[in-house]
């Protein structure tokens, strides 16, 4: 598995924690920033490139972190083929992989701490899509995207 990860200025600490986790798990990753120091940056500038790498097949999944995770998830979901879920608990992280086959995870650094973020990411990275009845639902989403985007 290969993962692209990025954050805006509000998610740098958790991005570092998740990079450390992926190194421990021996998961290949691309760190796409930000290297923003104390300056403010715009989350779409980081969400769109990660999402595009996922849909183009350059990586298998993406992880995005901002202050709340909301801006990153909204931005990522504008990219056709992305199913980004905002998760702040491990149950949701597992369910969103099993039932929704999410390919991008968003989290909020101002909402959760680094320990919980690691737990969420680990569950999300290790959970597989269960398909079955859920595949039909994912197909409906893809069909809608094809017709309306």
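-> sequence recovered:
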């Amino acid at each position: 598995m290969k993962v692209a990860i990025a954050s805006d200025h509000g998610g740098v600490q958790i991005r570092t924690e998740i990079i450390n986790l992926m190194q421990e798990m021996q998961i290949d990753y691309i760190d796409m920033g930000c290297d923003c120091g104390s300056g403010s940056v715009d989350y779409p500038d980081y969400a769109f490139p990660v999402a595009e790498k996922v849909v183009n097949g350059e990586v298998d999944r993406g992880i995005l972190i901002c202050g709340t995770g909301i801006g990153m998830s909204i931005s990522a979901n504008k990219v056709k083929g992305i199913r980004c879920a905002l998760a702040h608990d491990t149950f949701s992280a597992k369910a969103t992989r099993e039932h929704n086959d999410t390919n991008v995870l968003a989290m909020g650094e101002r909402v959760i701490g680094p320990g919980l973020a690691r737990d969420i990411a680990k569950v999300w990275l290790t959970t597989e899509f269960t398909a079955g009845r859920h595949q039909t639902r994912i197909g409906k989403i893809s069909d809608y995207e094809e017709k309306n985007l």
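The chain is about 45% helix and 15% strand.
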